[in-house]
Amino acid sequence: MTAVQGQVRARTLGELLQTPEYAGRTPFDGRARLVHDEVRENLTRKLKSGEELFPGVIGYDETVIPQLTNALLARQNFILLGLRGQAKSRILRAITGLLDEVVPVIDGVDMPDDPLNPIGAEGRHLLEVHGMDLPIRWLPRDARYVEKLATPDVTVADLIGDVDPIKAARLGTSLGDTRSMHFGLLPRANRGIFAVNELADLAPKVQVALFNILQEGDVQIKGYPIRLELDVMLVFSANPEDYTARGKIVTPLKDRIGSEIRTHYPTDVRQGMEITAQEAVRDTGVLVPDFMAELIEEIAFQAREDGRVDKMSGVSQRLPISLMEVASANAERRSLMQGDRPVVRVSDVYAGLPAITGKMELEYEGELKGADTVARDVIRKAAGAVYARHLASADTRDLEKWFEDGNVFRFPQAGDAASAMKSTRQVPGLTDLAATVAGSSDDAVRAAAAEFILEGLYGRKKLSRAEETYAAPEPETRQQRGGRWN
């Protein structure tokens, strides 16, 4: 016996059969515990104990997770269908948490094989030669997950395997013997989970090979029929756009997939904020006030609704995550240069435009206006929406009149936050309203709140904006406000 992760683990088949879990078992006893059964048993235990099934997966408690749980309880292979940035890959990887901590496999073979019920020719041969002295090793759950991003150039050899003439000559076997095969990714995922991302991108013949493995347990390689009754959970992801844009899932394979589970974007801003806070890399001490975090998240929601953004491509949840990181970095840069506390402001969001434009696929109208223009307009709409949720009843008549009297205000970007707040006193009511929004006596947070208020009024078409300068709304906008926008 040998110690592994604080426990004593068997090193041979004989030692394994002496453990309580395997007592009374014999080779080829037909009592193999399949991966689907293993996942089902561990899932059942977690459901009974009330444990979290998929840590880190947010927003799917009432939609995706119940459907996924049903598929796993039913021992089905499944496909996650959804647009980019909907946590499909995260969900697939999280299923490894439903596997046993470790499982025994035959040592010295390429394909992980059950020492009691080997399916590979090499494993069966080693069992015959060594008997109870068959060497085994313990495979951790993380090593039992194999993932492949599908592309049109992926071949059957990549996924299933290929005939190796040199190996056949060395072993003295025919080319049709499974011992002469060089295994691909799928056989190497035996006793585990094999995930294919963007399934529709696979060539039809490769998809048929996957179907043959699942349905019949055999496949033809270079004209030789090879039988591989793999013990593997096969899971997929795909983007609905791919069905028409780049390829499709062949009918026999689609029919063999047990469940088609649709993913979605966060249903509300707070849910999105929770995801962004979890995923964004923010370990630099930069403060993101709640109203700014909401603004950053609202930008993604507004982009998904904008008619100039391609709905079929979607707007990934990576947009607010990347924007949060870039805006925080810009706040940190400003802090390093000015010595002030790093707090994210609206100007930092505008500095994060590259994180927005690269995450949106534009329609024809959007292409005409340009990604930068569309992104700026989305920020404006987002600021107006967040302002309306929290400050729609705020009395800003004196502030608006000050601008309508011809005054302009350029929000200070240089200097410390105290100086910025001092300059805001010239705008009637802005300092007091900023203190209310900030909920803090910190000048850096109040400065961020003041700039947010001005941006929100701009988003509500009560002000106009040019770079960091705010002024009265344009005449046509003022007329519209007095009519149907009032």
Automatic annotation (TrEMBL):
Where on the tree of life does the source sit, at the highest rank? Answer: Bacteria
The segment(s) forming the Sigma-54 factor interaction domain are 178-240
Which ranges does the record mark as transmembrane? Answer: none
Q: Where is this region: Disordered?
A: 465-486
Q: Which InterPro entries match?
A: P-loop_NTPase, Sigma_54_int
- The residues the entry assigns to the signal sequence are none
Matching PANTHER family, A to Z?
PROTEIN KINASE PRKA (PTHR30267), PROTEIN PRKA (PTHR30267:SF2)
What is this protein called in UniProt?
A: Magnesium chelatase
Q: Which organism is it from?
A: Deinococcus aetherius
